[in-house]
Write a structure and sequence with these properties.
One of its GO terms (molecular function) is ATP binding. Belongs to the ABC transporter superfamily. This protein is α/β, with parallel strands linked by helices. The chain has one domain: P-loop containing nucleotide triphosphate hydrolases (Rossmann fold, 3-Layer(aba) Sandwich). A six-stranded mixed sheet has the order 6-7-10-3-11-12, sandwiched between helices. β11 and β12 form a beta hairpin. The radius of gyration is 19 Å and the shape is globular.
């Protein structure tokens, strides 16, 4: 099974952000989208999950999704957007339960399960406007997982997380990747498509890397095939020098 984009162009008003993207994602893979600010990473995620209208076509298992309803999209795609502060007075448990809107919302089993996995059981009666940024990010991930969609789209999911929680999230995502969902009698492997700015997370969990530059697809390849030059082309940095500088900071502190 594959998720295929053909000649994808996405615009905001008269400004085209994504320019004729062509890609093929094997389901069951963890795909990391990288690139500098403003290159179109978030726009690509929103295009894939049907939030933004686009030219070109997107195919799921050889079927065009161009005319899918929001409910059809929600069965297959779940998206965790970039963090934004919410002041609604929903409780944590109510918020997580919203992820069940395409299922039986009275089913408390999956809600309790994802709250346990994300470590927010003790927050269940708190309202969103009383949470820290890191706590709210965990609640929103739990809501996304409660949707039980096989394709998970994450937009900078490590925002506002401390070091311990970042490590726990990576473990959680790696565990989630081992699962699958049954939809209409078909078994669909879990697939992760995520935008990152840091390098630790994608290097830890990424199978494939998709690099964007100025709204164009610069490269899409497996992690083990990445040439060292791709980092400077996509991110404008000498990746080897960057790694040496990070190591030197720790050596200067403790050696």
């Amino acid at each position: 099974m594959k998720l295929i984009g053909k000649n994808i162009c996405t615009s905001y008003g008269s400004t085209e952000i994504l320019h004729h993207l062509n890609f093929s994602i094997e389901l069951g893979q963890s795909v990391c989208i990288l690139g500098n600010n403003g290159c179109g990473k978030t726009t690509l995620l929103k295009t894939i999950c049907g939030v933004l209208p686009h030219e070109g076509d997107l195919f799921f298992d050889d079927r065009s999704v161009s005319h899918w309803s929001r409910r059809q999209y929600a069965k297959y795609f779940a998206m965790l957007p970039q963090f934004s502060r919410s002041y609604f007075d929903y409780t944590v448990e109510q918020t997580v339960r919203m992820g069940r809107y395409v299922h039986d919302m009275s089913d408390t089993g999956i809600v309790a399960e994802v709250m346990a996995k994300t470590g927010i059981e003790d927050l269940k009666h708190r309202t969103l406007n009383t949470l820290s940024g890191g706590q709210l990010q965990r609640v929103l991930l739990a809501r996304t997982l409660a949707q039980e969609a096989p394709i998970l789209l994450l937009d900078e999911p490590m925002n506002h997380l401390d070091l311990k929680m970042r490590s726990e999230w990576l473990d959680l995502l790696q565990e989630w990747m081992q699962g699958k969902e049954e939809i209409n009698g078909r078994i669909i492997p879990h697939t992760l498509i995520a935008v990152f700015h840091d390098l630790e997370a994608p290097l830890t969990i990424g199978d494939d890397f998709l690099f964007l530059k100025d709204g164009c697809l610069l490269a899409h390849m497996a992690k083990e095939q990445l040439p060292e030059t791709i980092w400077s082309s996509a991110l404008g940095i000498d990746i080897r020098q960057y790694a040496k500088q990070q190591q030197q900071l720790w050596e200067d502190l403790y050696d």
